[in-house]
Amino acid sequence: MDVDITRSRVGGRARAPPSKSYTHRAILAAGYSDGAVVADPLVSADTRATMRAVEAFGGTVDRTDGDLDVTGFAGRPGVPDDVIDCANSGTTTRLVTACAALGDGLTVLTGDDSLRSRPQGPLLDAVEQLGGRAESTRGNGQAPLVVGGPIAGGTVSIPGDVSSQYITALLMAGAVTDDGIDIDLETELKSAPYVDITLEVLDAFGIEAAETTTGYRVPGGQRYERVDPYPVPGDFSSMSYLLAAGAVAGAEGGVVVEGAYPSAQGDSAIVDVLERMGADISWDREAGEITVRRSDLTGVEVDVGDTPDLLPTIAVLGAVADGDTRIVNCEHVRLKETDRVRAMATELETLGAAVTEEEDTLTIHGGESDLRGATVAGHDDHRIVMSLAIAGLVAEGTTAVAGADHVDVSFPGFFDVLYDLGAELDEHER
């Protein structure tokens, strides 16, 4: 599906979907337990992959009145009858890799073309350090993967600058090993707030885990408790597009985003970014509402070491702002569904923005940018698609975004929400 977006004003109330990060972790934590109810989950292409994995290991996942009723495998995953298809979900792949290492047999994990290009090597090495089997079938550290155990725990040394999901995977699996897992970080941890999310979810399920002077530790011999229900908070990564829409294209009264309650999500930093850029934005944390109005923005420097998913949104804001917006510490953002640094540089230039791309920095020269409608590629990446759609709200004329159906990964109703806010858009098949 493609979508055509014509320059528009948007306003009104909207609710971002539940958090993808929390949903993944809650589903798997429920799988590790005897069972639990995950309330108000995000049901999307990615989280369905995690549901399939829980079922492949011997659990069940039933949707009831908008919730997920999970019967777990009590910390002892069975050997799947078939290959686990993780589709486009890197989170599923990494979390499930460590889970598979608990099984007394072999699990095969694969996914689509994009997923099979993403790095898994450090996590495979960690599983082998723990005495498990973990191989890439092509010998390149990428899926398809063959993983088996059972591991009993131990100490692992792993880089922290590739993916925080490796740490999450080991913490979640380590709780049910005999000896627990000590994680020594070889490099500074990037995307650290995502591990904070993991620790928050683990605590809710009765699991003790903590940061140490060298990394993290989770004691073994623990048992995931039943939680009924576990409520999933709203997703700040998804909110970022709605907040950006209000800041660059808000009608009178602006955009009010509901469900914005404080949590461990690093991407709540989008509020601070918008404030620093000069946006008229206010956050009622008790009510869980953020209001943002169209504002004259000024470029700033933003370090996305802990918030890689915000890069596409900030890049679009920079193209509208006066002056330069420098997005720094972003080399790891090249390892997502696509090279998001290169993708945003390429497509914003297509729309008329002036951009300088370096290995670890993306600079958008807002004062030299004049956005004009054009046909841009979504790069089969939900975050690229949604950010370019926001650019289309302010670009002169009409912007055509190819591959718009990929929003199903994290925000299935994105274009419906944008339309309800007043965006002039047309969805059509290719």
UniProtKB/TrEMBL annotation:
Residues 7-418 form the Enolpyruvate transferase domain. The keyword DNA-binding does not apply. 3-phosphoshikimate binds at residues 20-21, 25, 163-165, 191, 309, 336. The active site is at residue 309. Its EC number is 2.5.1.19. It is found in: Cytoplasm. CDD domains: EPSP_synthase (cd01556). Pathway: Metabolic intermediate biosynthesis; chorismate biosynthesis; chorismate from D-erythrose 4-phosphate and phosphoenolpyruvate: step 6/7. One of its GO terms (molecular function) is 3-phosphoshikimate 1-carboxyvinyltransferase activity. InterPro entries: Enolpyruvate_Tfrase_dom, Enolpyruvate_Tfrase_sf, EPSP_synthase, EPSP_synthase_CS, RNA3'P_cycl/enolpyr_Trfase_a/b. Phosphoenolpyruvate binds at residues 20, 90, 118, 165, 340, 383. It is an enzyme of class 2 (transferase). Its main location: cytoplasm. Keywords: Amino-acid biosynthesis, Aromatic amino acid biosynthesis, Cytoplasm, Transferase. It catalyses: 3-phosphoshikimate + phosphoenolpyruvate = 5-O-(1-carboxyvinyl)-3-phosphoshikimate + phosphate. One of its GO terms (biological process) is amino acid biosynthetic process. One of its GO terms (cellular component) is cytoplasm. Catalyzes the transfer of the enolpyruvyl moiety of phosphoenolpyruvate (PEP) to the 5-hydroxyl of shikimate-3-phosphate (S3P) to produce enolpyruvyl shikimate-3-phosphate and inorganic phosphate. NCBIfam families: aroA. Monomer. Belongs to the EPSP synthase family. This is 3-phosphoshikimate 1-carboxyvinyltransferase. It comes from Haloplanus rubicundus.
